[in-house]
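Troubleshooting entry. Yesterday's outputs looked truncated, so today I'm pasting the complete records for two proteins to confirm everything comes through intact. If either block looks cut off, that's the bug. Protein one:
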Amino acid sequence: MNIDSANVDDDNDDVYIPEAPSKRPKRHAAEQIQELKAAYKQCDHPDEKARRALGAKIGLEASQVRFWFQNQRAQMQAKAQVQDTKAVQQEHAALMAENASLRHAMLTMSCVACSGGTAPAEPSPEKRRLLAENARLRDEHMRATALLHKILLEAEAPPPSGRPVPAASTHSMLSAAVEGRGALLRHAEASMDQFLMLATKGEPLWVLTPDGEVLNCQVYQKRTFPVLLGTCPDGFVREATREAGVVRGAAAHLVGILTDANRWSETFPGVVAGATAGNVVNVGVFAPHNGLIQLMNANLWVQSPRLRNRSVNFLRYSKLTAEGHWAVMDVSVDAILGLEGSRKVDLNVDSDVMQAWHKGCRLLPSGCLVEDMGNGYCKVTWVVHAEYDETTVPTMFKPLFRSGKAHGAQRWLASLQRQCEYLSALHSSHVPRSSHNTGTISPMGRRGIMELAQRMMASFYSAVSGPVTQPSSSIDEWHGSNGTGAERIAAAVRMVTWKKAGSMDGEPAGLVLSSSTTVWLPNTPPQLVFEYLCNGQCRGEWDTFANGAAVEELGSVATGHLDGNAVSVLCPNVTDGINSKMLILQEARTDASCSIVVYAPVEEERMRAVMNGGDHASVDFLLPSGFAVLPDGHGKARRHAPCTSEAPVGDGNTAGALLTVACQALLPGSPSGEHTARAFDDVGGLLCRAIKKIKAAVKAKIVVASLM
């Protein structure tokens, strides 16, 4: 595998900006630059071995070679962007010229018979009727909008003191709806003010520490009294995180994604399990999405079978705060809707939309500021401020949640940055090559491969973290181990079986076994685990499908500026029967919050058809397996956390990894209970052996199994 994932120190930008030296840095010699450019033409993402060899050849350190390649990639991307911009400008100018020409032709149009100017055509009676009807409807809409606005303002005004509350009347339902929307509008405006304060203010509200920014709760409570959602429930803890970064895309485009429930969940596939939009409380005015307030429900997940999904019901309020500056704010509404107290409001809320009310999480004013930078990029400041029930979090995962890396701002922003880069690579004609074999994938095939990989990733997320929704499914727990003594690896594996129906092309039905488990590798950096899993030369150590040997990369597409983000097609060294006719589709993703490696076997004939531009829908069934690597929350903690946990404590100076391993397989025939039990033992043992190989490769001292 030629994709370099062995050294990813450049966390954010592809351009290396060194610290200011004490003297002027020495430039590379002309001969060195010529050699570097020649190597870049061959491969613009060389691996560590290639960088060292090239450095030794021209007298440079491997790190210098890596930084030169990073800068060169950034320059090429900038040039490509300039070319795209010029092409769009030229096309725009041509269209404007054509428009002007057509307008001139219409104004100077003459009659063929007499060479005189043509009189404007008289509108038909039907057109005149439609214009009059349109004007009448527009007038009625304006008067109805003004009346509704007046009613809402009257509902917001508090009743005079001493006046008794009137009894219910025949208009009680209308009054309740008006009052409910008035309460939500007041709640949204107050929450937006708090969010803007959290997103824009520095000290003393946010205190800068060596571990990052920490919210000063005393200052926050003084500035926000009285609190919006009441006191924090017993057993709940607070998390407050803030992160800022640069994201590819226009501000209006990003706001459009955030205000659409479906597009929002598609943009954050590793964070949002599903989202639905409820009633629109307020419609945007003057600009699309400006002032839009809507009820939403979302289920959030973290890639591990041991963690419950987090369900939140909230208002999403988007507001244009200045030209090119947007604020998109979320805040829980359970209390406003009467689910946590006595203030119950009838909003005719759709029960299917708000299907899961308070589930152990309250979202205080959170969201993001989006500032258009005018160069195709935006500055995004993300804030997550929430309270959650810590008793629902398993002991091993409590440091992860307390650090803010499970559902915090860092994860949201990193996911947005990576997904925007992914979509840019999907739609752009200028995609950097990640290996010299990329030519085996056609331009149309590249898009098909990436869309097929998106389907594979969605299936993996559901298998690892999603609820079991397949009919005739069952969930079991398998406990086993591999090895003895200090080399013994124990694991508790979730086993899910469900029946797969036969496909249209004659593929038989069968029983699918989906297995997954999470283990803790203390003091083992997550990036080290990710690098090992992406190393094609070592794949045979843990992947039985690779037949104990290295795999050949037939082609790959880089999906981000960080080394390791790529979609690849691999050919295993297999010679036996059916498996010799299979290829491996793999996607690797890494950012500041997590790393994921997912792969699935695909018939070679269908895979090559997609690589040549065929429809990826021909691959109608994927059973992905893979790994999710999360930080364990130890080491350099980014946020303050309560000190009331019995969570295991590792070396406070070294971050560890939470490794989730998942394997899916189609069991042949119609397995009986005894056959299924043997399959559990086989697959459970397979996972234990893979974990053992990873432990040895990354030199982890111990492996701790995660129990229910």
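Protein two, checking that the full record survives here as well:
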Amino acid sequence: MAKGNHKRGRGKPQTHSLLEHYQPIDGVVDEMVDASGNPRPAWKHFVEALEELGAEKLGQRFARADQYLRDAGVYYRVYDKAGANEREWPLAHVPVLIEESEWAAISAGLV
């Protein structure tokens, strides 16, 4: 989710408590929720699965994934005048999901 001083607004989701405080950014296309704040079709089952886990268990799993990356030594290097600095890999815990028709168009362009 984007950070910064962006105007937020639009609708709020009706039934998904994990999304009840989620605020899409006005003027920015939101891949996960529609203008009324409800999950788009590609996201509906995914959001429901996350909802079944609950916020606490979900947070534990995200933390475990972050810890795994640290334990496995997954880093990237940033080079500057001072040399190379290792930084933790910024894992996106939630993937980007797309509709089957959108993937068909993308994959046709790749092959």
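Both blocks look complete. Sanity check on protein two: Residues 1-9 have pLDDT under 50 and may be disordered.
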